[in-house]
Design a protein that fits this description.
Number of domains: 2
Largest sheet: 2 strands, antiparallel
Number of helices: 18
Structural class: mainly alpha
Number of strands: 2
CATH class of the largest domain: Mainly Alpha
Strand content: under 5%
Strand order of the largest sheet: 1-2
Oligomer: single chain
Distance between the termini: 117 Å
CATH superfamily of the largest domain: Ammonium transporter AmtB like domains
CATH architecture of the largest domain: Orthogonal Bundle
Order of helices and strands: HEHHHEHHHHHHHHHHHHHH
Length: 528
Amino acid sequence: MEAIEGIKNLSYALDTFYFLITATLVMWMVAVMATNINKRPDGSCYSGISGFFFQMASIATAMSMFIQFKMKKLLGGRSQRPVPRSTRTSLYSGLVVALLAGLPTLAFGQEAVVVVEAVPTLNSGDTAWMLTSTALVLFMTIPGLALFYAGMVRSKNVLSVMVQCFAITALVTILWVVYGYSLAFGDGGSMQQWIGGLGKSFMDGVGVNTLLDGSTIPESVFSMFQLTFAIITPALVVGAFAERMKFSAMLWFMGLWVTFVYAPIAHWVWGGGWLSDMGVLDFAGGTVVHINAGIAALVAALMLGKRKGYPKTTMAPNNMVLTVVGASMLWVGWFGFNAGSALAADGTAGMAMAVTQIATAAAALSWMFFEWMSHGKPSALGLASGAVAGLVAITPASGFVGPIGALAIGVAAGVGCYIAAVKVKRVLGYDDSLDCFGVHAIGGIIGAMLTGVFVSKGLGGVGFAEGVTMGAQLGKQFVGVMVTIIYTGIVSFIILKVVDVIIGLRVTEEQETEGLDIALHDERGYNL
């Protein structure tokens, strides 16, 4: 009898124990569901954990019923200590609930159920890529562009163009931190369609842990990445007025130009302005950088006039080795320029890098062969210029087109920019010293317009926005191109005119003859 009583007590204890486990697990599951304790960092729910609790509750209940059955059989059908009605009801109810909710656990546990909107978190891979891209784009200006231009001028001016590129890098950096970034990418309030506000002046609000809205990279990295674009754009204009502009006038012009031309257009296209809202496609700077710089270059070249002796006097490049090395640096750095504009290390960045390489190669070869047929020999300058033309043209399209589009854009840019830089320049007679207009403005226009064609999925692109046809997209691209040309042309003219009236734009004839290295900097590029 004592043995039987002991078994009864043990059965009752185990029964109660499993009931408590069941109740505890069910209540814990409810608490988890109610308070979202099991939420992932991205806002989704670890539904597998909730299912796990249900399964455990189900198992505990089943164990309790199994023990009751075994004890009854062991006791020969005699009843154990009566289990209270409330306990039995809870046990059976728990079993039903647990089984109903626990069975689908396998299905629920396979996939996260989003319960709130995802909150962006810093991604170290994306951040590392953007840090690299920022360095690559800065490398494009110093030393890439500086060397590219330095090799094409005469030896008495080689240092002057390098100093100009270096000084622009320093000047634009300070202006960008003080107000440039805020104007381009800040919240403009009621003026948001046209210009950003001053809320981010001196990088206010951009801290160590501040992420770019809707992105996985720090805003500090984004602002520095965009700074490198703001640096190279005015630096490109140097090629138009090389060998004849005052250094002081250059500084004034560049400071005002970045403020009143570059920042507004960058805001219109990339900062949430009206061209962006219209649907103009410019992935990495066809309008913002290249058409912008090319038109300003043409205006500057026309306002300063021709170099002394141009075009009768031969003005051959002083060192093509520097130019080819500089072009090579531009080519490599452009991967950061285009692929970095994806703002992430993802498939878009990968395709942008691929099409950049394809278009550049196609443009280099098409320029070279076209020149070969026209002059009987291919040249190093032609090959380098063709490569840069391809880089320019693929810039607005790099995040939207595929290999087919890249190939077509590259060939069109090589031929089109050659005609503009060599044939048209000769006919019109303007002195764009290093062909900034012919390569950057024309290349940017070709790329911007063809983006509207090759974005089509049928041609290997990412596809048009919903409801947009190729004709409609071409219309949007045309508006973006024309607005940039008109606005940049007018405002650049006004700025140059103001600077000319105040301090003058051009060096004296004696200084030009002596060379700007000695006349303006009292140094020589070469001491041989």
